[in-house]
Amino acid sequence: MGSSTNGVVGCSSTGAVDKGVDFANYFCTYAFLYHQKEMLCDRVRMDAYYNAIFQNKHHFQGKTVLDVGTGSGILAIWSAQAGARKVYAVEATKMSEHARSLVNANNLQDIVEVIEGSMEEVVLPEKVDVIISEWMGYFLLRESMFDSVICARDRWLKPTGVMYPSHARMWVSPIRSSLVDQRKNDYEGAMDDWYGFLEDTKNSYGVDMSVLTRPFSEEQEKYYLQTSLWNNLHPHQVIGTAAVIKEIDCITATVNDILQVTSSFSSTISMEHTRLCGFAGWFDVHFRGRREDPAQQEIELTTAPSSNNGTHWGQQVFLLHPPVHVDEGSNLNVYFSMNRSKENHRLMEVEFDVKISKPSGKILPPIIKKFYIE
Amino acid sequence: MGSSTNGVVGCSSTGAVDKGVDFANYFCTYAFLYHQKEMLCDRVRMDAYYNAIFQNKHHFQGKTVLDVGTGSGILAIWSAQAGARKVYAVEATKMSEHARSLVNANNLQDIVEVIEGSMEEVVLPEKVDVIISEWMGYFLLRESMFDSVICARDRWLKPTGVMYPSHARMWVSPIRSSLVDQRKNDYEGAMDDWYGFLEDTKNSYGVDMSVLTRPFSEEQEKYYLQTSLWNNLHPHQVIGTAAVIKEIDCITATVNDILQVTSSFSSTISMEHTRLCGFAGWFDVHFRGRREDPAQQEIELTTAPSSNNGTHWGQQVFLLHPPVHVDEGSNLNVYFSMNRSKENHRLMEVEFDVKISKPSGKILPPIIKKFYIE
């Protein structure tokens, strides 16, 4: 699931991560059926993988497949139903036991072998023709699970093998959203409350806590204003051109390629008299096969703002305080930078540097904002 | 903070707990000012400790004090203001840095020494006259922080020393609550949804997931029906006599004494024609000093159901499904048992065995229910 562990075998390490801590912080959610069901109920996600597999049976028939992070086992089961000769379904949590009963209940135990363990540690009896995985986190890279897919690819994919999905892209666009007002109000409410608390504590209990005002406000600011939000945006909230800020070819990408994501891009505001309230980040993946062995039917899975095809990923929203009035034709020059958090490599720190030019030619002072994807 | 760690020095171990995992699961919440503020805003809690200290200055004047788990530093500051000669304020998280600035801002740096570290590991220059700590979790023992207070006492309290608080009790009473209907409805809604999901998955995706119905329903049942709830109950919801199920003398208690809590008790229903919807658990602590050196003013801090003196602890509610109709005079013979969870010693597993006798003399079949304090 996208990380190096103390028991790493044969995969480059981005830094030792204690397995117990990784489980307490990350893996444990995936052991719950409720969480698996949530993902299985995402029709856009399910349709994309289902169609990618069954409209490209030539990639599966008689072939060997590795499902990285099989969860409930759904992709492994579909791969077997599409004609795979053998499927290895690797899952780090006890969810693997449920995957195994699901495989048995669907009469696929001769084809699908469920293996409990981390991708970095398991040993397979052979290399595979296909690696399939649903590894994408919010804004693609949150959770850093792709590290484990890269590890699997480097260890177990045949030189002729195919990645499912084959490509991934990260997108950013300027947006408008009333969330910017809500969060600002929440923050200000928390600070009002704090000042009342300071007074009570001084009067009733004789302790002056005003020295904590600054760290408290920083903590609240980080929580209310600087932490990215999950939201399912409507396309009407996208107020300017969206830009691709990262492209990943899953057959060649290295962990180094994804440790840092930086991009300079432009976006033109397409809405008259609106507020730039921040930016939205999302992703898409494609199932194209490989150049020498392409898909017969290319499938796309996108998490872009949509009126009726929202996914459980939503988009990640980075709010700008205060919002900025912009006009149709205003131009944004944006520098985007994303790095892994030092405390937890599965979480991210993001920076947006925004230079706004009005249609008149006037250039506003640069806006530099830091965010946390938690 | 109530646990043995890998670096245990001089304290009996209840089993090795990885420090990193303990931080990820437990300690980390206490590093947030928002969380500290929530506790500092609990007037009942604050008043009790404030009065316990300032109405018993003889215990503090010219004395040495240890504050176990100082958090923001409030108890250490009050101890100094009450005349202590020296206060050691131990805190395992980075909150210690805020405690230190608070001490400095209140001009007590010559008296209060804030030490970042776990109680099991820190080394003090001397033994102390008083150990003060606010260690109580939900239903007293959730979080198992008292382990760390016992460790502190065994290592650092003088033979003549005093514990603040000196005593603690756990209470249980039968209750009525509409939560029992809410949770039941939530559970049934989740199961209805599941069956729809099963059908969709079979029809749209060709996978029969019915083998997961049983584990899914067990998971949902545990979540909705078997996990204790936080609630601030009104005294009107207490429908029968409350019983003390555990008494702790903080000067003599050992970790062994609190590993398991068992009690057989009776409760008589005091409300006519009502439903036994479950049981509530809460606690109280007392500040009585010690027999040879008693408090001048005994203070009580109770978390019993109250119309206007609720605390942030609330009560722990254990719901009975289905609720049972009982009458005034019905008698409950209850066997209560609580043990630490194997996966996480700071969480608990609870069992209630209930035998109901109606006023007519009729005895209902015993009800045996297991619960989780998460």
TrEMBL record, chains A, B:
Highest classification ranks of the organism: Eukaryota, Viridiplantae, Streptophyta, Embryophyta, Tracheophyta
Name listed for the protein in its UniProt record: Protein arginine N-methyltransferase PRMT10
Enzyme class name: transferase
Organism of derivation: Durio zibethinus (Durian)
Domain of life, source organism: Eukaryota
EC annotation from Swiss-Prot or TrEMBL: 2.1.1.319
Subunit structure: Ring-like homodimer.
Catalytic activity: L-arginyl-[protein] + 2 S-adenosyl-L-methionine = N(omega),N(omega)-dimethyl-L-arginyl-[protein] + 2 S-adenosyl-L-homocysteine + 2 H(+)
Cellular component, GO annotation: nucleus
InterPro entries reported in the protein's UniProt record: Arg_MeTrfase, PRMT_dom, SAM-dependent_MTases_sf
CDD domains, alphabetized: AdoMet_MTases
Keywords: Methyltransferase, S-adenosyl-L-methionine, Transferase
Pfam families xrefs: PrmA, PRMT_C
GO process terms (BP): methylation
